[in-house]
Amino acid sequence: MTDTRRRVKVYTLNEDRQWDDRGTGHVSSGYVERLRGTSLLVRAESDGSLLLESKINPNTAYQKQQDTLIVWSEAENYDLALSFQEKAGCDEIWEKICQVQGKDPSVEITQDVVDESEEERFDDMSSPGLELPPCELSRLEDLAELVASSLPSPLRREKLALAVENDNYIRKILELFRVCEDLENREGLHHLYEIIKGIFLLNRTALFEVMFSEECIMDVIGCLEFDPALPQPRRHREFLTKTARFKEVIPISDPELRQKIHQTYRVQYIQDMVLPTPSVFEENMLSTLHSFIFFNKVEIVGMLQDDEKFLTDLFAQLTDEATEDDKRHELVNFLKEFCAFSQTLQPQNRDAFFKTLSNMGILPALEVILGMDDVQVRGAATDIFSYLVEYNPSMVREFVMQESQQNDDDILLINLIIEHMICDTDPELGGAVQLMGLLRTLVDPENMLATANKTEKTEFLSFFYKHCMHVLSAPLLANTTEDKPSKVSTVGSLDGLSCAPSSDDFQTSQLLALILELLTFCVEHHTYHIKNYIINKDILRRVLVLTASQHAFLALCALRFMRRIIGLKDEFYNRYIMRNFLFEPVIKAFLNNGSRYNLINSAIIEMFEYVRVEDIKSLTAHIVENYWKALEDVSYVQTFKGLKLRYEQQRERQDNPKLDSMRSILRNHRFRRDARTLEDEEEMWFNTDEDDLEDGEAVVPPSDKMKPEQDLMEPISKFMERKKGRPHSGFLLGMSRSGSFAPESESFDFENCPIPSPDPIPVIMKIKKKLYYSTCFIHGFGYRE
């Protein structure tokens, strides 16, 4: 059986001062030759990979916290922590660290003497433990100076922390605080502020446990109210005791859990509101405070998760129709905060947490809550739903597919989400944007599972297009019944009620833009599902109506949708576009835009340029044959003239298919050098019917796809004229250094022929069943017989 004593979690502190879980494994210590020293090694329990390899440096300060944590810094701003499953394992590793550093295992922090001169080191090492002045009103100034002078030195900080801890000094200081406050001794209160702030910067868990105890924490906060830099003290205690109220939406029977919740709230308040913003130097001294809050939250979530009665009562009241609205509001807010706390859990614990919520029926509960009229409750439910979708979208997909077998489409959870997106009353559609992001995650094939028994992608997309897509596209279809966006339409809820009348207004246009963004995503990532839906429902024609919108961003969304479809180069889509003449609204928008140089102009030109560059023949012919008269006068770009040239070349190849096929052969083999390939080509020519080519006829492939036909044929004509009056002479042709064919009197020196150009023009000739290859270059030539 695996030894659980050495089972640990590895954490690193990120730039936001939050602990990131790096994995679970088993820790050991041993000598590592590469690091030349005793090191801590953590190997993952899943696959045995190395999670951590850290040399125990004699000068590194290690801290032992809460009996099961060891924290240290590898380098500046890079903190590490090991969280042990059992205290015994933590003690074993701590003893090993202390043995390497020569420390007593009873200490909770080892010494770090970095940045101290040798003289200071000697003085500090040779001096006895730090002696604190008596805790009296008259010595407060001396104590404040002692604390301030000890902070720059790690060794002095350690000695000061030990002295404060051993002498139970904090409680004595807090007694003086109460005396000074009763006497209104402002100078003494200012000294106490500096002292308590300095104790925070000692960054020691044992001191925090005393300061944050139930009997001390309010006095600690009181000391921090009297900042000498402020003319009047703050009122933090008044806020915590009179304004802030602890609400138990479900009674908590465990007193330890209740106390932990109180403590965490107050410590978080101290960190966020009471302590001054730390400097760069001081920020690294508060890492233990961050850790204290982090692990407190982990404990709270774990204790609540283990309380089955608590969670059962929570979900029972959430779904009970008799629950009052105010009570349900509090329950939903509690559940939202509960899910937010879960983000601090380790991955497998977070997985178990959401599995527990799923077993308790959180998704059916959310379905009930989302059907309520309270906007705030629905907003909180949306936040909870986002936690579930972001962490485990497959769980949500599985639920909605199962409920579709029992419920009507109108009350499906995913359709409720779509309805709330459509009916968002926020002028900026903040909620709709959030919901659209969640829908996008749910329909993203990249996070769908594929197993031997089933394929989640196929099952869920079939479900979505059958039960949900008509709900999503309803506002789009309702607003595009005419040739331009409808002046009055119903962007409706699922029960047929109107959420908002539309007159091409800004809010409705924003909503349609969101829907188009999601549909564009579907075009890019889904295959036949979205294709069938677009073609069968004539979606693209309805979308292109929006190019006439007064809002440019909506017109651009419509153009982007069509551009994604064209980018697929799918002939099904192309035939659909041509059959319905769907370039007409695009060209109309282009002409209506006039000479304005804006995004609409650029987007439309880029669409046609893509058709030209990618040589989409069917669309090129369709555009030129139907819209050339409207586009022929556009001369500030060459896109449309290029399309016309493409079209003409296509027609020429259709009229002369023999020449086109020979061009293809030459173009595909233009730079071929493999002798075996050339022999295959030769054999193909030997097998060709002799009548297909006249004796001595040469075929020259075009060097540029855009070169006019008459230019291509000119060198062939010159060659044939010259060859008629010239006998065959061992080589077939020559080319002058200027690039033209050489006259008969010109000869060439084969041995001193210049280096060929890297861009040859191959000429293949067939004479009396004999194939010759002659390669002509700009500055010379070579040939092969």
UniProtKB/TrEMBL annotation:
SUPFAM superfamilies in alphabetical order: ARM repeat (SSF48371), PH domain-like (SSF50729)
Domain PP4R3 EVH1-like, first and last residues per copy: 5-101
GO biological process: DNA damage response
Superkingdom per UniProt: Eukaryota
Domain Serine/threonine-protein phosphatase 4 regulatory subunit 3-like central: from-to ranges: 143-649
Chain coiled-coil ranges: none
Xref: InterPro entries: ARM-like, ARM-type_fold, EVH1_PP4R3, P4R3-like_central_dom, PH-like_dom_sf, PP4R3-like
Any one GO molecular function term: protein phosphatase activator activity
Any single GO CC term annotated in Swiss-Prot or TrEMBL for this entry: protein phosphatase 4 complex
Segments crossing the lipid bilayer: none
Pfam annotation, one family: EVH1_PP4R3
Family listed: Belongs to the SMEK family.
Function: Regulatory subunit of serine/threonine-protein phosphatase 4.
Protein name: Serine/threonine-protein phosphatase 4 regulatory subunit 3
Originating organism: Neogobius melanostomus (round goby)
